[in-house]
Structure formats: C-alpha cells, structure tokens
Design brief:
The complex is a heterodimer of chains A (about 750) and B (about 160). By secondary structure, chain A is an alpha+beta fold. Helices cover about 25% and strands about 25% of the residues of chain A. Chain A folds into 3 domains: about 180 residues, Aldehyde Oxidoreductase, domain 3, CATH 3.90.1170.50; about 325 residues, Aldehyde Oxidoreductase, domain 4; about 140 residues, Aldehyde Oxidoreductase, domain 4. In chain A, the strands form 7 sheets. Chain A has a 7-stranded mixed sheet, sandwiched between helices. Chain B is of the alpha+beta class and about 160 residues long. Helices cover about 35% and strands about 15% of the residues of chain B. Classes of the chains: A alpha+beta (about 750), B alpha+beta (about 160). Chains A and B meet through α1, α3 and α16 of A and α3, α4, α5 and α6 of B.
Chain lengths: ~750, ~160
C-alpha cells in the first residue's frame, strides 16, 4: 500500500495547526483550579474572601456555584466537580479562579483559605479493604467485583502434573500526552456555551456538562479536536466543568491549560494491579487449570474502573484454551490518584501475568515455551475467552507463528556476549477485544453528503488525538467511493456538525469508519448517479464515481461541483452498533486483534540496566488502511509499553505524588529504544469475515512487557514479576545467585 | 510563575531581537519566559509548552542557530539574538525539506512535539548533514515524543539527509 501523507500532516509539521490550548479569544480570562492539599480530609472551612479582593480576579467558584449535579464520571458521577465536605485524593478540586492573567489566578489560589481535618489515608487496596478502614464512598471501598468460572477448578488442579503460582505487580502509568489538558470555554451571545477542549467523545462531554450546568445539551457545543495525544486519558472530563462554570460566571471566554504538575496531580492513570495466577499443565503440556485473582487500585473515584476490571477478567486466559478457569477481580477505592482508561484497558496488566505464566510453566515441565503456546492456543472456530462466540479468526496462531520465525532468527544471531553484558530473547502473544463489549451501549454511525459547493463531506463524531483517524477516514472514503482525497471534506470533533459515532476509544474508530462506509456508499453512490443521469441524460448504469466527479468510460462527464449546483444537498446517514457476540455474556467482545512480540535485551551485569535492543511486533488486525498510521501506532505503542516495562511508575507516598513532572517520571527518550523497530502486519482474514480492518490503537502496547520479561529471564535467569524492572531488582537477583550458570 | 505584581510594574524591560528574520521590540516583565512571549505576546503558537522544566523539548527554538528550550529561557535573554521558531521554516508556498521528510515518513502523530523535533532536526542537519546513529540519538536526547516511539522521527531525519 502506498504511503499516504496524513490530511493533518502539513499543518502539524509547520506548527500552523491550532491545538485547542493554542486558542485565544478577545476578553479572554485565565483560570486555575485549587486542588486538595490532602489525600483524604474533611473540609472544615473554605474561604475565598481574601482571594476575591486580589485585583484582577474576576470570579471564584466553589461547590456553592455548581447549579445542578455536583459530580462527574462517564458511568457513575461520583467525583465532585467541587468538593464540599470531603476530599478523597490530592487531585480533588475545591475552587477555581478566573483572572486577568495566569499569574493572578495562581496568586489567588494561594489566598484561598481551606481548613482541613486530615483523615486516615488509605493508600493501598489492602488498607482500604481492612475492616477498620473508613468508607470512602457510601457503598464501601469496593468499586467492583468481576469474575469468570468454567469447569471444576479444584478437580482440574488435582490432575495437573505441574502447577506454577506467581504474584505479579504492575505500576501506575501516566499517559504523558505531550499536550496537557486544556482549552477555552466561550460563552456565546445567545446564552449557549462553546467548549474548545479535547476529549475522546464530544457528545459524552456535552451530556456530562449538561447535567452539571443544568443547561440543555443543545446549548452546549463541544469542539474536541485536535488533541496533542490522549491514549485514553482525556476521555473522562478534566478541566471542562471549571472552565464552563467560570465562563458562565464572568460572561467571558476562559482559558485553562494545566501545567504538567497540575496534570500529573489531577489526571487519571493506568490501574496498578496485583495479580496472582496459579496455572497447571498436564504431562503433555496442555493447560488444565488457571486461577487468577486481580486486585486493582482504582483510586478515589469510579470513572471506567469497573469496565477495565471486566476487561482484565475477560482476558485472563488470553488466547489459550484451558479446561478449567476461575478468575476473580476486585477493584478497590483508595486515596491514591484516580485510575481509569488507558490504551490497553486492563489487557496490558493481565497479559503481563499470563505470558509470564506460560514461560514459567514451560520451564517447569521442560518444554519449549513456544511449543507450549502452540499446543494451547486457540484455533479458528474456538469460542472467545468468556465462552462466547466470536468472529472466526486464525489471528492468534498467525501471530504466534510469525513471532516464532522471528524468535528463531534472532536466537541464531545473538550478539556475542561480553564480560559484563548478557543478551536474551523473549516472546509473548496476546489477543485484545475491540469495542466496548456485550451489554454496553456502543452505537456508531456516520454521514456522507454532497454539499452545495460540490464537496463530498464525510462526517463522524470521532476525535483526532494523533492516532490518525483523519487519515483512516480519507483512505476508507476515497476507496469506497472512488473519488480523490481533494474531493473530500472531512468533518469530525464538533458536536454542532457531526453525527453520533460513539466514543473514540477501544480501538473502534477505524473499524467503525469502515463499517459506516460499507453502509453509506451504496445509497450515496446511487443518489449521485441518479442525479448525474438526470443532468447529463446518460444512463445511470453507464456512470460511475471517479476522481473529481461522475465518470463514463474513462472520462469525467460531470464534476461534483456541477452535480451539486442548484440542488438540495444529498445526505445519507447511518446508525448501527459495534458488532457483538450473539451470546449474551456481559462485557464479552466479538472482534479481537492479535499480537506476537519478540524482544531482545541486553543486561548490564555491573549496573543492572536493561536495554531493549530489538523489538519486533507481529500484528493481526485485518487489512492495513494507512501504512504510516498503522506503523506509527504499533511502534509508538510498543515504545510506550517499553516505558511501562522498564521505566515508568507514578510513585505515590501516603497518597501524595512523589513524581510530579517528566524529570522524575521518565518516559522513553530516543536513546532508550531500539534504533530500528520492526513489525509485520498480518492482513489476512478468514474468507467469511466481513468485518474489515480493525483498529490498532491499543494492540501494540499489550504484549511487550511479558516479551521483555521473558527476554530478561533468557539473559540472566531472573524471573520478573514486578514492573517496572528496575536495575536494583536485576542486581538483587544476581546477588541471590540466580544468574544462569549455563550461560557463562 | 509566581510574580509580584508591584515589582513587575516597576521593572519592565525592553527587549529587541530578530524573530524569524523580522525585528521585534517589546516591553516585558523580567520574569516572563521566552515561550510565553512567543506564544502569548506574539501569538506564534507553533512553539509548544508541555513540561515547563526543560525536559521534553516541545518548546525548542533556535537561538543564534543553537537549540534551546524556550521554557527555561527568559524573555529578556532574547536581547540581540536571532530567534528561529518553527514558523520560520516554511511559508504558505513551500515547506522546509525536513518538514517534507517528516510528512513522508510519518515522523509525527499528534504533532505536539513536532515543532520541537523539527527544530532539533534543523539544528542537527545544519551542522552535520550526514549524522550517525549516535549523532541522531544525541541531537534528539532533549526531545520527548509519546506517539511515534521515535521510529518515524529517525526515518524522517535519515530521509532529510539523503534528499
């Protein structure tokens, strides 16, 4: 497939693209949000009196100024917009100030007087689950329980030849989108509100703001594109309510752009989880029993915590067919930062554990780890991980075989080891559900029009966060219609002009754009050709759509402009739901993508530092829509996962962030990653598969950590169970004498 | 960024410099950062702000041809300096070969780090038209990208130097 330049490319490389945090408006004020000083405290008093006297302060809002629902949350609105009685984490907001300058707003925050009565800090799920622990929410400290059982687990364990049990711990990861949360909220003359703030689902923000402001949704317009990265992190509301309330209070545009420190403090993160897996095999290497318990630290508020736990539970046995499965998950409220949606959505955590188990089991029975996977991996017609019917797929085996070839090739060309360096190669595979799953509202849709000025307008309620949805829309639409990209006008990210397409999450965008075009193209082309036939007198059957207009026998007979002139616009819309399994199993997915990862590491025995020298990802996600976009998602996802594996950990101590910026929270730089990243896209789908290209926004992040962990074992015999793998842990493992003797 | 408003009033500083070849003269607060001057006072928002502590490079600009982070440069320090931002590399009709290479190799996704990356690339290639792997790693060591994993950026730089 030819490399196509992204529609938003030129504006981005020239710096001309206006991000929403770049916008300014006449009379614009600057705002800041006061966050809690304590991770858990009662608010005894809150006085804004002194702050209000500061010259240049235009408005200060507290809980008293929230007109309707003082709460937000995509599913359960349990997070106060502005806290009244209690704060539950250091990102909780108490007040917000709009002022003539950012400096005045910052000074005003210092003048707001809050008296707190500190309460016990529940900074771990263990503490939150203790009998003596105070309840953080009326229902207690358990946000959600989820589970899956299949077969007789005890009987199955009793028949196993070997059983491996391990507890895996994974860290809190920061999305670290380069553009922190922000934008401008503008009160319009007609009493409506325009919100120029990035999000992954404009209509959902509109709904949430409507119930906070007590304002009809029709009076709120959300402009949500473009964004400087999101990765799941901007799906939940962030600063929108404060900007909106202040804009309404002052009647002036209000800009908020969080500093990195403010972002670190208030933004959601990836769920830290503790996962215990006990897995048994028989003599032949068949997986017989698999028991998993997951404890997730969901932080102070719900957001998408329940769905993320459900996803982890679903993927606990991954692409493997196991007789007896017993999975239990618990998502626990704590006074730590709020955990929520993040690229991979619980899959990354559980896959790290599961693929660790596979290598441990293989070693325990003296079997090749690839062979063990091959023996147990799902085949085309096998049901999904929750027993549900899924779209028949060979993806799991295909990525495994692809990764196996790469693995063997890399093993044959291992760099020569030096006195203080050891190298190792590791492999891992995974499957990852797309869409929100059974029983979750997951509507999609799009709209195709020939506008009055002769543009083919394609509109979706999606957002461009960098993932490349604009390029996907351009490629899929031009291919479906046969027109050229210059004929198109792509409309996204503005609730005033787009149809509902559902959220820009869950690797669903590419898939839903393709499905929409399959539905839209027939009726749209028909109407265009009918119109052209009337206009030209040529039989409809002889006409087709081509670059620039309507064609017959290799000649353009009528331009889109001429066809549109003087006519009512032609508009075709579609609304449908993301495909789900016919089996009514809550949260179960139907379309999956697959990944096989091979990593090569170099371990420095003196410093304990691990360098990933090679990373190869085989991905099965249907046809590639845009080569650069696909490569970018897989490579970039892989490197984000390398950070998760080796570097990244949002450290919290007693509910306070110890890492506050990118100097103490390290994400991979250019020197931390392999100079050449490798990938293979497996594009084939079974003949009967009519579901088209799948999104690859998440899959590149999911199986990297276990591949690296398995490579570390290969290099030095250290079984990694805790991420990120710190040099200290490597050195300690060597002090314990577990360096492979046979490798010296 | 905390400022004392009184002091600001009494000690404003005049600063003159060249921005992308055009003379600029402004009166600024002594604590104003260069990035705020460029973005807020001059409305040139190609230069981005992300970490604010000189770690991520999103605000990278060239000062007399040398790469600098404008979040750790104070506005008054621009006095007499030739300042180049991403806006200086292209006009409506033509874009710089480095930008062309970023486009063709997919050296960006969200694009927020891209102006800084492009400036780092320019700084590198101006002094070293055929950089080695190590030289590329060194040149971009102060610029973070969360989207691409750097593969596309490396390929862009390699394309830019081969063209």
């Amino acid at each position: 497939m030819e490399k196509k330049i992204r529609p938003d490319g030129r504006e981005k490389v020239t710096g001309r693209l206006k991000y929403l945090t770049d916008l300014t408006f006449p009379e614009m004020l600057w705002a800041k949000v006061l966050r809690s000083a304590y991770p858990h405290a009662r608010i005894l008093s809150l006085s804004t009196e002194k702050a209000r006297k500061l010259p240049g302060v235009r408005a200060i809002i507290t809980h008293e100024d929230v007109p309707a629902l003082n709460g937000f949350g995509i599913v359960t609105p349990d997070q106060p917009v502005l806290c009244k009685d209690v704060v539950r984490y250091v990102g909780d907001a108490l007040a917000a100030v709009a002022a003539d300058s950012i400096e005045i707003a910052a000074r005003a925050l210092e003048l707001i007087e809050v008296h707190y009565e500190p309460l016990p800090v529940l900074d771990s799920p263990e503490k939150a689950l203790a009998k003596s622990a105070p309840f953080l929410h009326p229902g207690g400290n358990v946000l959600h329980r989820a589970g899956f059982q299949k077969g007789d687990i005890q009987a199955a364990f009793s028949q196993c030849a070997k059983i491996v049990e391990e507890t895996y711990e994974v860290p809190r990861q920061l999305h670290a989108y380069m553009e922190t949360e922000g934008g401008v909220i503008v009160p319009e003359k007609d009493g409506s509100l325009t919100v120029y703030v990035g999000t992954q689902h404009g209509f959902k923000d509109r709904f949430q703001l409507s119930r906070i402001l007590g304002m009809p949704e029709e009076k709120i317009r959300i402009i949500s594109s473009p964004m400087g990265g999101s990765f799941g992190g901007k799906d939940e509301l962030n600063i929108q309510p404060y900007g909106a309330l202040l804009a309404l209070a002052t009647g002036r545009p209000v800009k908020i752009h969080q500093t990195r420190q403010e972002s670190m403090r208030s933004s959601i993160k990836r769920h830290p989880m503790k996962i215990t897996m006990k897995t048994g095999v028989d003599q032949t290497g068949r997986l017989r029993a698999h028991q998993t318990t997951i404890t997730a630290d969901t932080g102070a508020y719900a957001t998408l915590g329940p769905a993320i736990l459900d996803f982890a539970v679903e993927h606990a046995c991954g692409p493997y067919i196991i007789d007896a499965v017993d999975t239990k998950g618990l998502s626990v409220f704590t006074n730590n930062g709020v955990s929520g949606e993040f690229r991979g959505f619980g899959g990354n955590q559980i896959t790290f554990a599961l693929e660790g188990q596979m290598d441990r089991l293989a070693a325990a029975i003296g079997m090749d780890a690839l062979e063990l996977r091959r023996l147990n991996i799902r085949r085309k017609e096998d049901p999904g991980p929750l027993g549900q019917r899924i779209a028949p797929t060979n993806g799991a085996l295909e990525v495994l075989e692809s990764a196996a070839r790469v693995y063997h090739a890399k093993k044959q060309h291992m760099p020569k080891r030096s006195t203080w360096k050891r190298t190792g190669t590791g492999l891992a595979v995974t499957m990852h559900g797309g869409g929100l799953g059974f029983g979750r509202m997951d509507p999609a849709g799009g709209r195709l029009s020939l506008t009055e000025n002769g543009k083919v307008e394609i509109a979706f309620g999606f957002e461009e966060a960098g993932q490349g949805i604009l390029a996907v829309i351009e490629a899929v639409t031009t291919e479906a219609l046969g027109c050229k990209k210059e004929d198109l006008s792509i409309v996204i990210g503005d609730t005033a002009f787009v149809p509902s397409s559902g959220s820009t999450t869950a690797s669903r965008g590419t898939s839903m754009v393709w499905h929409s075009l399959q539905r839209l193209k027939g009726p749209f082309i028909k109407q265009l050709l009918q119109g052209a036939a009337q206009r030209t007198g040529i039989e409809e059957e002889e006409l087709s759509i081509g670059p620039g207009g309507i064609w017959k026998e290799g000649r353009c007979m009528l331009s889109f402009e001429s066809l549109a002139a003087g006519k009512e616009p032609i508009v075709v819309s579609t609304q449908f739901d993301f495909p789900v399994s016919p089996d009514p199993i809550d949260s179960a997915h139907f379309l999956y993508t697959y990944s096989g990862v091979v990593a090569q590491v170099e371990v420095d025995l003196l410093t304990g530092k691990i360098k990933v020298t090679e990373l190869h990802q085989s991905t099965a996600a249907g046809p590639v829509v845009n080569e650069l976009g696909y490569r970018g998602q897989i490579e970039g996802g892989g490197v984000m996962a390398l950070g998760y594996t080796l570097m990244e950990d949002v450290v919290m101590k007693e509910g306070q962030y110890a890492t506050e910026n990118l100097d103490s929270y390290l994400i991979p730089g250019i020197g931390d990653v392999p100079f050449q990243l490798e990938l293979e896209a497996i594009e084939t789908l079974p003949l009967e598969d009519h579901y088209g290209p799948r999104g690859v926004g998440e899959i590149g992040t999911v199986a990297v950590a276990p591949a690296v962990a398995n490579a570390i074992y290969d290099a030095i015999g250290f079984r990694v169970s805790c991420l990120p793998v710190k040099p200290e842990a490597v050195l300690q493992s060597m002090e314990r004498g577990i360096l492979h003797e046979n490798r010296f | 960024m905390k400022t004392d408003s009184k002091r600001e009033e009494t000690e404003m500083i005049q600063v003159s410099f060249q921005l992308n070849g055009e003379p600029v003269q402004l009166t600024v607060s002594p604590v104003m950062r260069a990035v705020d001057l460029i973005r807020n006072e001059l409305g040139q928002t190609g230069t981005k702000i992300s970490c604010g502590i000189g770690r991520c490079g999103a605000c990278s600009i060239l000062l007399n041809g040398r790469l600098a982070v404008s979040c750790l440069t104070l506005a008054y320090q621009l006095e007499g300096i030739s300042v180049e931002t991403v806006e200086g590399l292209s006009d409506q009709s033509a874009i710089h070969p480095i930008q062309e290479a970023f486009l063709e190799e997919g050296g960006f996704q969200c694009g927020y780090c891209t102006p800084g990356m492009v400036m780092a690339a320019k700084c590198l290639l101006d002094s070293n038209p055929k950089p080695s792997e190590a030289a590329i790693q060194e040149a971009f060591s102060g610029n973070l990208c969360r989207c691409t994993g750097y593969g596309g950026i490396i390929r862009s730089v390699q394309r830019a130097c081969s063209s």
